[in-house]
């Protein structure tokens, strides 16, 4: 990508970089630390003062945001992507407590993906938008889910993967049965018995 062939105007690029930074609860100092781009350069870029932005600068900023440079530039945007982005921006605007907590507790949001941010910003409390405490609890719940998924991925790479699949399948069927129609006591007992048969087998499986 050359400096002369940017797919966004300087003003649009400035707004996008600023939006992505604020979306993560970062200040310019944090973006400087993560991207390796000088604070002065970032300041002028976000103000729209930079008429020729180096492709290396864009690449470094995109890496800090954990996205491709093309995504930062808006290359390949389609109506569905635009709609999703506008929806996410609306959710962020209606949940300002999320950005507040992200600024005060950045470690809670370390390594978050775009989907994680969209999930928390789309949540609401009992009376409407999340409070700071509610936002923190929601973030911690997302982190717990992320950790559970990570642990499951590790298990699926071991000799216990078949047992893990069977257990997850049993739980999934229980959830599906509960969601559709209340299962009979006999059906619930059958699923519980099946689960009980699977779990003791874990210690009997030889390591590979």
From TrEMBL:
Transmembrane segments: none annotated. SUPFAM superfamilies: lambda repressor-like DNA-binding domains (SSF47413). Residues 17-72 form the HTH cro/C1-type domain. GO terms for molecular function: DNA binding. Pfam families: HTH_31. This is Helix-turn-helix protein. It comes from Caulifigura coniformis.
